[in-house]
Specification:
Blueprint: E1 8-12, E2 15-19, E3 22-27, E4 31-32, E5 42-43, H1 44-47, E6 56-58, E7 67-72, H2 75-82, E8 89-95, H3 101-109, E9 113-114, E10 117-118, E11 122-129, E12 135-141
Parallel strand pairs: 4-5
Antiparallel strand pairs: 1-2, 3-7, 6-7, 8-12, 9-10, 11-12
Length: about 150
C-alpha cells in the first residue's frame, strides 16, 4: 500500500481533487475495533502496519464478529460513510436453527424490538445451511444501530 502521507489527486475542471484512500481489512474474532484495549483484547490498530495506525475505521464489528472492515485516511469521509442510511451494509450471518418465514417477515417489516427500540426494516435472504449447523442469511441494513445484526 504506498505511503499514507501521499494522497491521490485527480484533475477535474482545472483543479486537483483530493480523494480519500480506503483499504479493506479482514477483522478476526476476539479483536476490538478501538484504539484502546478492552479487557486485554487486541485492537485492530495493533494489527495494522505502523503507517496506517492513524487511519480511521469505517464502522465497527463487535469483538465476537469477523469480517470486512474498511479504513480511511480522511475522517470526514469515513464519518459520511457511517452516517445512518448513507450506505447499505451487507452481512452474511449464521444463526442456530431454521427461522420461520414469519419471523423473517417481521425483520423485513421492521417489526422487531432491539434494546427497547423498534428495529428498522432490513432485507433478509436465506442462503442455506450454515457450515456448523443452523442457517446462513444475507442481511442488508439501510439504517443500522448497535448490535442490530447480533
Amino acid at each position: 500500500m504506498g505511503s499514507p502521507a501521499l494522497r491521490h489527486r485527480v484533475p477535474a475542471s482545472g483543479r486537483d481533487l483530493r480523494l480519500p484512500r480506503v483499504f479493506a481489512f479482514n477483522k478476526p474474532r476476539k479483536v476490538v475495533v478501538s484504539r484502546v484495549r478492552e479487557g486485554g483484547a487486541n485492537t485492530v490498530f495493533e494489527l495494522l502496519p505502523a503507517d496506517y495506525r492513524d487511519w480511521v475505521a469505517v464502522g465497527r464489528l463487535d469483538k465476537d464478529s469477523e469480517g470486512l472492515l474498511l479504513f480511511c485516511d480522511d475522517p470526514r469521509f469515513a464519518q459520511r460513510l457511517m452516517d445512518p442510511g448513507a450506505v447499505a451494509k451487507t452481512y452474511i450471518v449464521a444463526v442456530e436453527g431454521f427461522p420461520r418465514e414469519h419471523d423473517l417477515d417481521a425483520m423485513r417489516r421492521g417489526g422487531l424490538v432491539i434494546e427497547g427500540q423498534p428495529a428498522f426494516p432490513v432485507e433478509v435472504r436465506r442462503l442455506g445451511k450454515a457450515p456448523r449447523g443452523g442457517t446462513r442469511f444475507e442481511v442488508v441494513l439501510h439504517e443500522g444501530r448497535n448490535r442490530e445484526i447480533r
